[in-house]
Each structure stands twice: as structure tokens, then as C-alpha cells.
Design a protein that fits this description.
The protein has 406 residues and is an alpha/beta fold. It is built from 17 helices and 15 strands. The radius of gyration is 23 Å and the shape is globular.
Amino acid sequence: MVIHVDYARRQRTVEGHALPTKVGGECVPSYPDFASLRRADEAKMNGERTRTSTEIYPGDVPPEATTIERRISHMVGLDPRNIIVYDSGMGAIQNLLELEGPTTGTVVLHGVDEYARTKKYIEKKLGRQRGVRTPFVYTASIEEIAEGIESHRPDIIFLETVGNGPNVPVIDLDGFFAIDALKEINPFIIFDNTLPTPTLIPPRELLREGFRVAVIESGIKAYSRNGEMIGVAFVEDEQMLAELIDDRITTRRSPFTSQGRRLSDYVRGRRDDFDEKNLRTMWNSLQLAQACYEAQGDGSAFTVSHPNVGDHPNREYADLHFPGGASPLFYIQVTGAKTRDEIAMTLQDDPNVNALIEKGHSFGTRYTRVFPDPIGNVIRVSAGLEEADRIEELGRNLRRTLSAIS
């Protein structure tokens, strides 16, 4: 595409069509004539995501959003038309959960182990405040998921492919889609694929033909590496896409202009680099979880939850499908006399451990983070992007320090 500029009139054209012009520091463009304005407005109303439709009023969707969607498409192997970016992961979750207008009598089936804010939105906002029924299932068990679907007959199913909770369950995807009641009931299925990232579970594997499926991610971890908030949805159904795009405008859930500019700088890496970072985080998590597991002894003081470690119920599935690690994080579940905070302080008081960890939230960070979760009697360990020698050293120190507790 060649943009021609008539410097005398300061008018840009593409293939003979006049483009809008931004005046001074304004982000809302002015059009050279009403015909151009009408064409842009029609493009927006038709749900098109082009430069024309996004520049007309950046308050709806800034043009940078289209750039981000295109760049993410290179990382996940999906057409940019099937990608919708949001201002945050929770923004994506809320827009998808609200897509079918859940109200009294609606049934939303969700997982026991899931992001705390997701659980709060489903159980409080939808459940207690709106009368939505919100039964939950243990997603490590296909049998329990199947029983939950058959008995509750949900309108919406919201599940994390790898659960961000103390048990870190992993869904057997082929087993899930083989559940007989799914096709009979035809619920709206939402998968949160944040933990495994598209590197381990490409959205294409989740967007199964014959099912009404959408996939979301909290992209701050894998895409911007905790540099900026971003939510991402992957959708192939045309009607669903159009409704979500319109809802994003109505709820103002698109990245705002300055946020979009920062994100378009963050989300510009190569696919192989994107995958390498995600795989390294998974591998580092597996090595640290194994070291901590070797320190748990008989489990009377604590146990370690990681899909590829010990007697985790999804160990066989995780080892087969994700031999390099199924999760960027794991949990130390406190079972004995020492409290969560006492164990956390033991780690902090050991200078050899303390020098190699950060204390804080999130994952996908540069260095490994330790977080004593106030919601449960657990400590979450999120592996960083460290090189192998630093991970080996941290693993040795964790094993030694935790062994003294057990």
C-alpha cells in the first residue's frame, strides 16, 4: 500500500481515496468530505477492523488495537480477524461472560481452581447479585466435568485449560470435547488459556468445529511481559465476533490510545522468540517444583502441586502432552503446624534463597516470584526467565531450606 501526500493541501490518499487528517495533537481525525466520513462510519458499523474503521473515532477502538491484533496473529498462528484485544484480561473475561446476558436461571459452570477475580465475578456479580446459578467442578477429572454438565445442563461453561489455583489441574481436551452432553446441550464454552499460553495450547486446538467456543488470555504475562495490561480473545464464529466487537465499543473495553501505543511496541517480537520465552518459563517452573517436591518428605508439613510432578492426578496427561512442563507456576500447599507465612519467612530469611527470588504477584516475569496467597493456605511460586545455572542454584537452595521444615 502506497500513501501519497499532496503537501500543498496536506491531504493523504490511498489508491485515490482521501484519508482523514489529524490536526495538531488531536487523536480524532477530520475527513476531507462527508462521503469519506460516511464510508468510514459504514465500515465501523459493519464490524470491519481496518484503518478506516478504527481511525474514525479512537474513543471506540484506537487504530493501534488493529496493529496489536495483527502482531499477535503472527505469534499464535491465527487470522487477525479472529483476534480481539481488550484493555485487560478481566475486560476480556467480563465481555465474554456477558455476551449472552446471563440472568436469573442462567447456569454458568466453572472450575474449582481458577483466578480469584474470575471466581469472584462469577459467584458474586453473576451469582449472588443476579441470581445466576454457578456450580463448579474439579477440572482435573473429566468424569466430574461430564457429571457436572449432565446434571446442571449449563448455558455457559467457563474453564481454565490449566487451572490457576492450588491444585493446578489440567483439562484433558480430547476427553472434554468427547463428552456426549456437550453437543446435546450446546453451551457457550469459554476457555481461559492464560497459563499454558498459545505456545503449549494453540487457540486453534480449542476452537473446535461444531462447538460454540471462545478462548481468552490475560496477555500481560506472555505478550507484554508485565509491561502493560492487555486481554486477548480468540473467536472464529462470525456472529459472535460481530457481537463481541460491538460490545467492546459499548463497554469501552478496547485498549485506550496511549495504552495501545505502548502495547504495539511491546507486542512486536518474533514467533520463535515468543515461544522460547514461554517454554523456558515452563521448564524453569518444572525444575523448581521438582526440587521442592523432593523436599516435602511425607507431606506432613507441605505438599507441592505441579501437573508434571509427584502423584498429581494429571501427571500422565501432562507428561505426554507437555513434557517440558504444563504450567509457569506451582503451589506449596501447607499441611502441618507451620503456617503459610512462617514457611514464606523461612525462605526469605535464608540469604541464599532470598537473593534469587522476588516477592510479589504475577508470572512471566524476569525472575522467579514467591507469593504467600492470603486467600488460601498456600504459597505460589512463579518461575522467571532465568538461565539454567541460576535455576539450578535456586532449586538446590529451595530443596535444602524446605527439607529442614519437613
